[in-house]
Design goal:
- Strands 1-3-2 form a 3-stranded antiparallel sheet.
- Helices cover 71% and strands 7% of the residues.
- 13% of the residues are buried.
- It has a single domain, classed as Orthogonal Bundle (Arc Repressor Mutant, subunit A).
- The protein is globular and about 60 Å long.
- The protein is built from 8 helices and 3 strands.
Length: 161
């Protein structure tokens, strides 16, 4: 297989994985399986806060490329469900900071366990050495793409040109 064919295969496979990972049907089935009534956006917010720590509404809106009103509604719903806690920012009391609650961590862990089990099922027939190679290659690809990803400043200066 030549370089062009390899790139096409990689693009097609990544596109399919992204499509499946962001699929409403897949998400809804996962939520039903663990009994958690979260939208895809709410699940993304919960994961982001859990991974990176306490965040303000505006920080989350920027990081997830959503409007501030959408971020506010999403965080309010997560708070109503008891999955995040809100407190005032010590430096600026007008700013609300959200953190994952103990219940939120527990529910996110349940979702991660389900997703890991699904991944294990998909890889069950893959020999351990190929599984390891796949893990290393995917991690390497993610790091390379991350290094090339333009910052918001770079993207806006390119579009202005």
């Amino acid at each position: 297989m030549g370089t062009e064919e390899d790139l096409e295969t990689i693009e097609r496979a990544l596109g399919e994985l992204i499509r499946l990972a962001s699929s409403r049907r897949v998400h809804d089935a996962r939520m039903r399986a663990i009994g958690l009534p979260l939208s895809r956006t709410e699940a993304r917010f919960l994961a982001r806060i859990d991974e990176l720590g306490p965040r303000s509404v505006s920080a989350l809106a920027d990081e997830l490329d959503l409007s501030q009103p959408t971020a506010s509604r999403t965080l309010r719903r997560l708070e109503d469900l008891g999955l995040v806690d809100r407190r005032g920012d010590e430096a600026d009391g007008r700013v609300a900071i959200y953190d994952v609650s103990a219940d939120g961590r527990r529910e996110r862990a349940r979702l991660q366990e389900l997703m890991r089990a699904q991944l294990e099922d998909a890889l069950v027939d893959l020999p351990p050495t190929r599984r390891h190679d796949l893990a290393v290659l995917i991690d390497d690809l993610a790091a390379r793409v991350r290094r090339q990803a333009p910052t918001a400043t770079q993207a806006s200066s390119r579009s202005a040109s």
